[in-house]
């Protein structure tokens, strides 16, 4: 089932920490006075705390590029490549990238930096807070092949945040057809926004219909829920809980990282 997970991570039930980059050049919230140096300094502080706290992987994203675009401007991925490049010597665990909400740009960034995976919305058409959200997985898959990025794993967010599928289809059917027709390397199940709890029934439904494709819980995992959701999910992606006071806008807090990872280690020990 999760052979590629075993190749990338040295443990079952991997926990991937989000490293939310500050607003970037071109974003409304960009701090022109602090510039790129300030972005790198904060990212390096957070990376140190996440790695020291024991996470299994880290994913760099432009989370503070609000409001998001479904087709990003080149400056976004270019700047992310510079930031990650400056931190490369400090990264000691597997990493992935996510250029919100642009699958093609995410793959380009992964290829440029050596990231092992990307997470994005690759399939479906949605009514979203960002307008009509249309995807083209066939085009993206061919772009991935054309640039030699077949080794970059694609994590499909099958329940997009801030959006609703335009066609009234049940989640079980969406899962089955996505696995069959779009060839994802993993599926991610989310709540409405970053930090919001993922619906457990939705998570179960996706897991039950995903066949051999690994399923990640994508939002809202906390220290007190990690054991429960990872009892049937194959891994977790955690961002907000790892922040100081559990607030989205804050920097990572090593003590909160250790708290959640301790819960996960308990689960792993029981499984062994």
TrEMBL record:
Residue ranges that the Swiss-Prot or TrEMBL entry lists as coiled coil: none
Gene3D superfamilies, A to Z: Aldolase class I
Pfam families, per database record: BtpA (PF03437)
Transmembrane segment boundaries: none
Stored InterPro entries: Aldolase_TIM (IPR013785), BtpA (IPR005137), RibuloseP-bd_barrel (IPR011060)
Family (UniProt): Belongs to the BtpA family.
Protein name: Sgc region protein SgcQ
The organism of origin for this protein: Acrocarpospora pleiomorpha
């Amino acid at each position: 089932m999760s052979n590629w997970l075993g190749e990338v991570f040295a443990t079952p039930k991997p926990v991937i920490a989000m490293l939310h980059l500050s607003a970037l050049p071109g974003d409304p919230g960009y701090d022109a006075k602090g510039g790129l140096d300030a972005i790198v300094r904060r990212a390096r502080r957070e990376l140190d705390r996440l790695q020291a706290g024991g996470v299994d992987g880290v994913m760099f994203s432009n989370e503070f590029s609000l409001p998001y675009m479904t087709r990003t401007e080149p400056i976004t991925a270019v700047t992310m490549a510079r930031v990650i490049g400056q931190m490369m010597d400090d990264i000691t665990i597997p990493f992935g990238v996510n250029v919100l909400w642009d699958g093609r740009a995410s793959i380009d960034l992964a290829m440029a930096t050596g990231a092992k995976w990307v997470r994005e919305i690759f399939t479906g058409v949605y009514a979203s807070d960002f307008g009509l959200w249309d995807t083209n997985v066939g085009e993206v898959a061919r772009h991935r092949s054309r640039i030699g990025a077949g080794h970059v794993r694609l994590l499909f967010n099958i329940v997009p945040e801030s959006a609703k599928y335009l066609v009234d289809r049940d989640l079980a059917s969406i899962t089955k057809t996505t696995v069959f027709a779009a060839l994802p390397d993993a599926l991610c199940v989310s709540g409405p926004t970053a930090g919001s709890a993922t619906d457990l029934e939705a998570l179960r439904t996706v897991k039950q219909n995903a066949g051999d494709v690994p399923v990640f819980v994508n939002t809202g995992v906390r220290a007190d829920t990690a054991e429960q959701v990872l009892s049937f999910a194959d891994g977790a992606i955690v961002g907000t809980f790892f922040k100081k006071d559990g607030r989205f806008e804050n920097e990572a807090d090593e003590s909160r990282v250790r708290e959640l990872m301790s819960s996960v280690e308990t689960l792993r020990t029981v499984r062994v």
